[in-house]
């Protein structure tokens, strides 16, 4: 069976889980322990980040490379169009989501933690300092103050302005069409939906995260009806295509399915 080495809280892993579910592929999630478990990831893939996918002895790191591999090998319900123009649009949007939107979203997580103490205390038992450090490690100038997620060198107003701008662009597209590119779901949709996770955590049973965190996110944005077009689109993408229930196995375990207790 396909194995996904992941953090449950990783939005890049969420992108891969979305694709696996959309394609109807069975998989098990191997929950990597931040820092120590990444040694195993390094041995397996030559780099230390998750997600990493293992399929029949093939090991692939990086969510984009995994998406391309899955679409090549399991070509039913293709997510990367063959038509040149659509393909270009999908890949440009995917890269924008990975490198701009996803980073703004990670900064949003820190903003929520610094501005909303109840959100922070609900999150902290699961998102340990080690994990948070790893989730946000891609942010230049990020420093971890006392493990409490205070963003250093980042203006909260600027972070929120960027997220608002990104969401309004996405709403402009989604008010005219059901998917971001073309008339069927593509990698662009799964990437944008997954990487919006830290702006507002999805509700439902898709993720093993504390109940108190679900539906919560960046104050003034997660709860702002201006972006309803986006959140309604994301909710529908989840209910149409994302599944719950792939077993989670702690990293280093011999393969016994179990679940992690996070509440
Ligand atoms: N470009 C990578 C980014 C993956 C990434 O940033 N993973 C984070 C978790 S969300 C990670 O593993 N951080 C640990 C580290 O950098 O040591 C992808 O698309 O897969």
Features:
single chain; 263 residues; alpha/beta; Glutaredoxin; Glutathione S-transferase Yfyf (Class Pi), Chain A, domain 2; 2 domains; 9 helices; globular; disordered C terminus; binds glutathione
Oligomer: single chain
Q: What percent of residues are in strands?
A: 5-15%
What's the overall average pLDDT, rounded? 88
Major sheet: arrangement of strands: 4-3-1-2-5
Number of strands: 5
Kindly name the structural category. Answer: alpha/beta
How many DSSP H or I helices?
A: 9
Task: Describe the secondary-structure layout.
Layout: E1 2-6, H1 11-22, E2 27-31, H2 37-45, E3 52-55, E4 58-61, H3 63-73, H4 84-115, H5 117-123, H6 129-135, H7 156-174, H8 187-195, H9 228-241, E5 248-250
Parallel strand pairs: 1-2, 2-5
Antiparallel strand pairs: 1-3, 3-4
Helix pairs in contact: 1-3, 1-8, 4-5, 4-7, 4-8, 7-9
The structure holds glutathione.
Residues 7, 10, 12, 38, 48-51, 62-64, 98, 134-135, 137-138 line the site of glutathione.
